[in-house]
């Protein structure tokens, strides 16, 4: 019986030795961290959560906008925001972080650390001790012992072009990794302090400045193709935290009749135009539960591409409901974009719940929902 | 305690509650610079933990925050929260912090009434009550329009250096005169502006009259605050006769993202010290019996036996599996992944290994 060949290019590598032959002149340039979609031919990015990528049909298309409706205390929406930025760091993309509440440097310091393949590293470094420990642990698997030495996690992202990574929320990203990427910032109080003659920044002023800042970065760094001689293209990941909250100067969260009801929608309209003409993707979190006028959220949903709403069980009566005891909240996918097609081919309404563990944020169909009930 | 002095028209319109003397000492949200809106419906008794030490019962763990934050005390017409605010002020002062009070609703003498002398020493009062619109043209005092980050930090700079607590009595007064975004932006920038002036604002305590504002505004403030304490009247029968018990429901948002909620009864004793009276028992017990997805043993109630006894289990473990190799063969299989294929043959009991070549018998 032939020995099982687990080797790839190198004996200690868990990856396969088969490599896809990419033609020399491929239309879609190979940008790190992206892959072409088989459905609509667009370039896809990972949103930082492999399970969310599955729900969205493979990933987030380049040039689109992902809108997250925040949960009541903003905990999980903040986590999704951080996953998106952390994915950008691991793939080597450029980042643009905008916030009115926290300093972007503080946000970046608190990003979760990516999970690399630790078992893989042990095999490379200390082969002898690894073999010994393998022999001892052979008793752990009685039937499937051939698979004992396969790495438990995926191989290191640096080694393979894997799409979507896992993160450990209990650790923060290492400063060396942060230094290796280029990032830009927009912090509203800082922008306002640069112009002290304006006492309070109303929404028009804040949003306009943000749009101008984004446009300037896109142009200067060449994300819109204005430097064709630049061979190595890269993606710009834009993250805007808590757009529409009072700290941006907008009063749609506090009254039914805000002063300028269209400021947020105008912002999104212009932003989507900027995104479409550049190699970028944007994540925005909006405190939808605070917005008083429901018509605003409908317009905002129409003006975004992908809209995901989060609902956490903290403080609600569902916390003690036994149906939900494994989960921390529900996810509602309100909209998925129809790119190059008439309908979106991601299957329709599902009863999705999410569960957060230290190393994994999984989204799954809630056990006990109507789709599963017939089998119980 | 003397009856409350005549108030301003707006307070009279609000119907100033009579339980003023309760003087909830409410542990000042010691939360370090966090605006923790603690909805404390503390009823009557607050447990005093030493002079100015940690707050009532669980409150000690509350007031711990690292960065500047907003602590919101929300009261209504049924139950006033200024006494709770004063307990927090007393606790902050006892911890050695200077307390800058921006008062708009009641005169300075009334605010200072009832405090111990060591507390009043640390109290720096900015008077926004006497002449809020600056009609008399006198110097001093604090105008409503001056409530910006720079204006406030300018006032703070006049006090002693060191940790400072900013107290707003009340935030509702400001919100009725200035738009909410401006006030929130100013509140957010006060710690930064003060830091650039060399001061350290540990927390911002604000009193909010919840029934004066639209619910959206209150919700927005609650989402901005680090802790919210809501004060309300307690049901009958709690606490002893002399106290005015109140209910506090506290909500604290920690930096790690956890959210804590708690309800407690408290009262306020003389000298603005709180006293805890216990917790309400009104929560509904969980209904575990009617849980249809309980962890029932799936092997029960069957017509056939799916369980294993111990001897059966051991016998099952002892059965050799078809691809159960010896340990040596397993390890060599696992290790030799790069070498050329090897053939391993393990004869079983029925095999008869004969070294002779069977073709030798052929007579060809």
TrEMBL record, chain B:
Any Pfam family: Elong_Iki1
InterPro entries: Elp5
Comp. bias (Acidic residues): 348-364
GO CC terms in record: cytosol; elongator holoenzyme complex; nucleoplasm
Transmembrane annotation, as ranges: none
Compositionally biased spans, kind Basic and acidic residues: 285-294
Subcellular compartments: Cytoplasm; Nucleus
Region ranges (Disordered): 277-298, 345-364
Highest taxon, organism lineage: Eukaryota
Pathway: tRNA modification; 5-methoxycarbonylmethyl-2-thiouridine-tRNA biosynthesis
Main location per the UniProt record: cytoplasm
Record key words, sorted: Cytoplasm, Nucleus, tRNA processing
GO biological process: one example: tRNA wobble uridine modification
GO molecular function: tRNA binding
Family assignment from sequence similarity: Belongs to the ELP5 family.
Protein name (Swiss-Prot/TrEMBL): Elongator complex protein 5
Gene name of the encoded protein: ELP5
């Amino acid at each position: 019986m032939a020995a099982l060949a687990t080797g790839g290019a190198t004996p200690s590598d868990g990856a396969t030795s088969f490599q896809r032959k990419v033609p020399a002149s491929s239309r879609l340039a190979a940008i790190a961290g992206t892959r072409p979609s088989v459905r609509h031919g667009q370039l896809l990015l990972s949103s930082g959560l492999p399970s969310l990528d599955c729900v969205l049909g493979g990933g987030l298309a380049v040039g689109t906008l992902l809108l997250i409706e925040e949960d009541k205390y903003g905990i999980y929406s903040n986590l999704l925001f951080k996953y998106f930025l952390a994915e950008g760091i691991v793939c080597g993309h450029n980042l643009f972080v905008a916030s009115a509440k926290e300093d972007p440097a503080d946000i970046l310091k608190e990003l979760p650390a990516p999970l690399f393949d630790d078992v893989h590293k042990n095999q490379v470094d200390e082969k002898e001790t690894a073999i010994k420990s393998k022999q001892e642990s052979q008793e752990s698997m009685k039937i499937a012992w051939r698979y004992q030495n396969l790495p438990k996690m995926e191989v290191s992202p640096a080694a393979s072009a894997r799409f979507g990574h896992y993160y450990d929320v209990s650790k923060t990203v290492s400063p060396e990794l942060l230094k290796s990427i280029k990032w830009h910032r927009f912090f509203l109080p800082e922008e306002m302090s640069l112009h002290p003659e304006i006492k309070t920044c109303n929404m028009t002023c804040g949003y306009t400045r943000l749009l101008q800042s984004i446009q300037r970065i896109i142009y200067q760094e060449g994300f819109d193709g204005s430097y064709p001689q630049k061979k190595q293209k890269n993606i710009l990941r834009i993250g805007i935290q808590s757009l529409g909250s009072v700290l941006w100067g907008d009063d749609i969260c506090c009254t039914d009749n805000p002063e300028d009801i269209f400021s947020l929608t105008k912002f999104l309209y212009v932003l989507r135009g900027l995104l479409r003409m550049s190699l970028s993707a944007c994540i925005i979190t909006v405190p939808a539960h605070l917005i008083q006028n429901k018509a605003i959220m409908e317009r905002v949903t129409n003006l975004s591409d992908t809209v995901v709403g989060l609902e956490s069980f903290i403080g609600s009566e569902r916390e003690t409901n036994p149906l939900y005891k494994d989960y921390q909240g529900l996810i509602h996918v309100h909209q998925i974009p129809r790119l190059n097609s008439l309908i979106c081919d991601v299957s329709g309404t599902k009863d999705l719940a999410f569960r957060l563990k230290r190393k994994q944020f999984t989204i799954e169909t809630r056990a006990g929902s109507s789709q599963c009930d017939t089998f119980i | 305690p003397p009856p409350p002095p005549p108030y301003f028209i707006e307070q009279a319109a609000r119907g100033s509650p009579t339980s003023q003397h309760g003087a909830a000492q409410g542990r000042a949200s010691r939360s370090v610079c966090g605006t923790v809106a603690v909805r404390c419906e503390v009823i009557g008794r607050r447990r005093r933990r030493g002079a100015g030490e940690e707050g009532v019962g669980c409150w000690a763990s509350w007031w711990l925050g690292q960065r500047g934050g907003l602590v919101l005390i929300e009261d209504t017409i049924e139950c006033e929260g200024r006494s709770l605010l004063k307990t927090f002020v007393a606790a902050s002062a006892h911890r050695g912090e200077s307390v800058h009070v921006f008062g708009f609703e009641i005169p300075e003498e009334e605010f200072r009434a009832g405090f111990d002398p060591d507390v009043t020493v640390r109290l720096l009062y900015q008077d926004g009550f006497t002449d809020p619109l600056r009609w008399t043209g006198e110097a001093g005092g604090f105008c409503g329009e001056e409530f910006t980050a720079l204006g406030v930090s300018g006032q703070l700079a006049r006090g002693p250096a060191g940790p400072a607590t900013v107290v707003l009595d009340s935030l509702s007064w400001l919100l009725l005169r200035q738009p909410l975004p401006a006030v929130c932006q100013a509140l957010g920038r006060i710690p930064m502006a003060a830091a650039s002036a060399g001061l350290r604002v540990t927390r911002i305590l604000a009193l909010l009259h919840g029934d004066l504002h639209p619910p959206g505004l209150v919700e927005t403030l609650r989402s901005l605050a680090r802790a919210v304490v809501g004060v309300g009247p307690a049901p009958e029968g709690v606490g002893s006769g002399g106290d005015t018990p109140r209910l506090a429901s506290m909500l604290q948002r920690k930096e790690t993202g956890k959210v804590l909620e708690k309800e407690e009864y408290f009262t306020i004793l003389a000298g603005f010290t709180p006293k805890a009276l216990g917790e309400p028992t009104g929560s509904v017990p969980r209904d575990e019996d009617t849980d249809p997805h309980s962890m029932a043993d799936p092997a029960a109630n069957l017509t056939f036996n799916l369980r294993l006894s111990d001897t059966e289990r051991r016998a099952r473990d002892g059965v050799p599996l078809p691809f159960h190799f010896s340990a040596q063969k397993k390890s060599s299989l696992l290790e030799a992944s790069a070498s050329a294929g090897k053939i391993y043959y393990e004869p079983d009991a029925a095999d008869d290994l004969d070294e002779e070549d069977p073709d030798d018998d052929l007579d060809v």
